[in-house]
């Protein structure tokens, strides 16, 4: 008796992924090239491949789903990112299976395994791990993958990534601070993920400080409470001479800083300039306004979803290695209108 032909046999001969074969078997041709469909159908006919009824029912039940992993669903940035992804995938006929990794490497690992077991058609990850070994099993399983927002350091060329130009934006911020008469940069960070977007921001600020002759200082808040931050911040600020720009490297840190400023009767831009990575409309009403480096997370989610769909529909997968979304400055606020 001849050995039963499997989907794996079809993928090898047709040169496509298992996801593509599954979509064709179940009549899902959206965003698929006609030539690809015809080639796969020809191979299916040539090999006399007949999917079992049980396997076909399983794929129909679980197909057309994209897994989306975000670092912290409570962070408005992650929420907007997921919304941007869903807006595009919904138009393409896909549902998303949204999972929160809580900025945990172990939770992220379990979530990836869960999505693999669910036989999702593709995965978009806001990564916690900075090493690709966390995600390499997806390539072996031929599951299309897109990295978004944060950078994975050893990412292979076959995997796409969509991120902001964090390092360049912070370098340009250093130039702006110099031109407005600032001498010191005091950054406040909170690293909750190994692949934190704050890493390239810090690198950009450090390089700018070195190139432009500014002093650079960073306070890392992870593991400490607001009282500790208040003591550390006020002490560090008092040690600096000349004008200081205080930079919140992530949105939630800003709330702690504003509370500390109120308690200690500190004002901006009178006592220091205030900069934040945010997209909060209300920030313009705080004091004389907060100088923002704004990131459109919904747009980033749109890009990631479009890149994943393109990768899924292209043979071989066409990854967009880097699709920079540059943060926009809001120069009408804070120190820029005072100096």
TrEMBL record:
Residues folding into a coiled coil are none
Gene3D superfamilies per UniProt: 3.40.50.2300, lambda repressor-like DNA-binding domains (1.10.260.40)
Q: What is the lineage of its organism?
A: Bacteria, Bacillati, Bacillota, Bacilli, Lactobacillales
Which keywords has UniProt assigned to this entry?
DNA-binding, Transcription, Transcription regulation
Q: Which PROSITE patterns match?
A: HTH_LACI_2
Against PANTHER family, the record matches this protein to: LACI-RELATED TRANSCRIPTIONAL REPRESSOR, TRANSCRIPTION REGULATOR, MEMBER OF GALR FAMILY
Tell me if Glycoprotein is a UniProt keyword of this record.
no
Whether Transcription counts among this entry's keywords is: yes
HTH lacI-type domain: which residues? 5-60
Q: MF terms per GO, please?
A: DNA-binding transcription factor activity; transcription cis-regulatory region binding
**Protein's recorded name:** Transcriptional regulator, LacI family
Q: Which CDD domains match?
A: HTH_LacI
Source organism (scientific name): Limosilactobacillus panis DSM 6035
**Cross-referenced InterPro entries:** HTH_LacI (IPR000843), Lambda_DNA-bd_dom_sf (IPR010982), Peripla_BP/Lac1_sug-bd_dom (IPR001761), Peripla_BP_I (IPR028082)
């Amino acid at each position: 008796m001849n050995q039963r032909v499997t989907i794996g046999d079809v993928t090898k001969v047709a040169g496509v992924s298992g996801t593509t074969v599954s979509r064709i078997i179940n009549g899902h041709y959206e965003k698929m090239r006609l030539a690809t469909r015809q080639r796969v159908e020809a191979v299916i006919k040539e090999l006399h491949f007949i999917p079992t009824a049980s396997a076909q029912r399983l794929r129909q039940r679980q197909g057309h789903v994209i897994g989306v992993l975000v670092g912290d669903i409570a962070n408005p940035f992650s929420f907007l990112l997921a919304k941007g992804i869903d807006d595009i995938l919904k138009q393409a006929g896909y549902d998303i299976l949204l999972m929160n990794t809580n900025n945990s490497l172990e939770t992220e690992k379990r979530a990836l395994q869960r999505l693999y077991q669910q036989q999702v058609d593709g995965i978009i990850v806001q990564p916690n791990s900075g090493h690709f070994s966390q995600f390499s099993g997806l390539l072996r399983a031929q599951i299309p993958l897109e990295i978004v927002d944060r950078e994975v350091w050893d990412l292979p060329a076959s995997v796409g990534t969509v991120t902001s130009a964090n390092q360049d934006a912070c370098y340009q911020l250093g130039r702006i601070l110099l031109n407005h008469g600032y001498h010191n940069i005091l950054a406040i960070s909170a690293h909750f993920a190994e692949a934190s977007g704050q890493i390239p921001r810090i690198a950009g600020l450090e390089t700018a400080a070195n190139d432009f002759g500014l002093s650079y200082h960073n306070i890392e808040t992870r593991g400490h409470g607001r009282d500790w931050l208040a003591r550390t911040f006020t002490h560090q600020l008092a040690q600096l001479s000349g004008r200081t720009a205080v930079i919140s490297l992530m949105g939630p840190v800003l709330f702690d800083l504003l509370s500390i400023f109120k308690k200690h009767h500190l004002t901006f831009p009178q006592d220091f300039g205030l900069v934040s990575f945010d997209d909060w409309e209300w920030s313009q009403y705080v004091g004389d306004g907060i100088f923002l480096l704004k990131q459109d997370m919904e747009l980033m989610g749109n890009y990631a979803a479009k890149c994943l769909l393109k990768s899924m529909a292209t043979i071989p997968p066409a990854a967009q290695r880097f699709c920079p979304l540059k943060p926009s400055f809001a120069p009408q606020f804070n120190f820029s209108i005072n100096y």
